[in-house]
Design brief:
It is built from three helices and nine strands, in the order βββαβββαβββα. The protein is globular and about 50 Å long. The protein is of the alpha+beta class. β7 and β8 form a beta hairpin. The two termini are 27 Å apart. The longest helix has 18 residues. The strands form two sheets. A five-stranded antiparallel beta sheet has the order 4-5-6-2-9. It is 16% helix and 32% strand.
Amino acid sequence: MRTKAFRAHVKTDGQGGLEPGQFEAIVSVFGNVDHGGDVVLPGAFSRSLAEWKAAGDPIPVIWSHQIGDPESHIGHVIDAAELQPGDERLPAKLRGNGGLWVRGQLDLNEPRAAKVHKLLKTRLVKQFSFSYDIVNGGPAERNGREVYELRDLDLFEVGPTLLGMNPETELVGAKSDQHCRSCVCGTGDDGKKAVPVPVNGDEEPAEDVLQRPESTAPTLSPADVLLSLQVDALAYDLDT
C-alpha cells in the first residue's frame, strides 16, 4: 500500500451547504507533477470508486494513514467523484486540472475526530492524503522531464494529514458543529523520502524517486507507518 498527500486550503464555515462535521476536499489533482515525480491521470480512480459504490461500503476517513489505530478512523466518505476541468466544485486555481473530489463526515462524538476537525478549522492542518495501490502505471515524459504516470489506482482511504507531497490539493470546505462542546505524514512510495520538486518544475526529481518497484507488502504495520512519518518529517524540516 502506498500513500500520497497534498497541501490543503480551508474555506470559512457555512459555505457549500455542509452539515455539522462535514468537509469537502480535492484529495488528488490531475495532471500536475508532485514532489515524488508522479502524475495522476484523469480516470485513475473511476474503476475503484465504482467498486466501492457497488459494494455499498463507505470509504474510510483516517487520520494520517494510521490504519492500525481504531481511534484514527475518524469518519467516512459520503460521496466521491472525479471532477473534470471546469467543474464548479473545483477551487478556481484547480479548474484547469480536475481532480478527485470527496465529501466526508467526521464523527464529532469521538475525541480524535473532533480534535482533527478543530485543526482543520484553524488551519493548523492544511493537507489531505490518500492511500492506494497501483493497478496500472508507467514512466512517461512531461515538459521534457521524466515522470511516473498513475493511470489506474485502488483507493483504500482518505484523510487529513500534517505533511504532504503534492502542493496543489484543496480542502474546499469544513463546517463546525454548533452544538459540539469539545471542539505525520506524506510519505514517499515504498518508504522513500519525499524529495521536493519546485512548483515551477525547473528542477528534475532525483533518479531513484522515479523508480517504482512492484510492491510486495499489501499493508503497512503501525510501526512502519510511524517510522515513515518520522523520516518524512525530518526530510521536510531539512528541505525547508
